[in-house]
TrEMBL record:
Organism for this UniProt entry: Streptomyces tsukubensis (strain DSM 42081 / NBRC 108919 / NRRL 18488 / 9993)
Ranges of residues in domain Isochorismatase-like: 35-173
InterPro entries: Isochorismatase-like_dom, Isochorismatase-like_hydrls, Isochorismatase-like_sf
Protein name as catalogued: Isochorismatase
Pfam assignment, any one: Isochorismatase
The entry's keywords: Hydrolase
Lineage: Bacteria, Bacillati, Actinomycetota, Actinomycetes, Kitasatosporales
């Protein structure tokens, strides 16, 4: 049984069968990140009756993160899920549209995907390699699905991964509230990502130190 999150030795985690399982967490990332990956920040998930919890607050935090990444000259990738026919995020449907504005440029692009992992079957890895990106911030929805899968894809690609807790979310699962599902998703990623409590502590920089 998974219980509600509570303070633990490293500042985050959950209780399973009466035992505390910690989620590694830092107050501040060790170094600036060179890219921001926004995962499935689409109308289907952030508006209407089926929106994720605190969708307006999440959108505001993601917007601030996006502006800071742009200002620092970091690479920005909007990952957009192409849902199946009849799905809320089916291509061409209103729910498929990105919720945050895109400033199309060499360093800000949209990458379409059909699976949870943004690196699977896309040119994302080659795109980041082409810019010399070695570290990424990952944010968006849903915590235990596309956010977690893309984080694993980034780690498998040899990238440093920063995951701010307040810029990813999901729905509740059975009797588990959304906040617990999100924290369990973080825990399942192990100790390789850098987990930080707030996106406000995340710094960005241009790949290779350029602007």
């Amino acid at each position: 049984m998974v219980g509600p999150s509570q303070p633990g030795p490293s500042g985050g985690g959950f209780v399973r069968d009466g035992v505390w399982h910690s989620v590694p967490r830092r107050d501040v990332p060790t170094a600036p990140a060179e890219a921001l990956l926004l995962v499935d920040v689409q109308t289907a998930f952030l508006t209407g009756p089926d929106a994720v919890p605190d969708a307006p607050g999440l959108a505001a935090r993601l917007g601030l993160l996006l502006e800071r990444a742009r200002a620092a000259g970091a690479v920005v990738v909007h990952l957009r899920n192409d849902g199946e026919t009849g799905a809320p995020d089916e291509p061409g449907k209103p729910g498929w549209e990105l919720r945050l504005p895109v400033r199309a440029s060499a360093r800000e692009v949209v990458v379409s995907k059909e699976s949870d992992d943004g690196f699977d079957g896309t040119g994302l890895g080659a795109l980041l390699d082409g810019h010399g990106v070695r570290s990424v911030v990952i944010a968006g929805v849903l915590s235990e699905m596309c956010v977690a899968a893309t984080a694993r894809g980034a780690l498998d690609h040899g990238l440093r991964v920063v995951l701010p807790h307040d810029t990813h979310t999901t729905y509740g699962l059975d009797e588990l509230p959304p906040a617990v599902v999100s924290k369990v998703a973080e825990h399942a990623l192990g100790s390789d990502p850098e987990f930080v409590a707030s996106a406000a502590t995340v710094a960005f920089g241009a790949p290779g130190g350029g602007r």
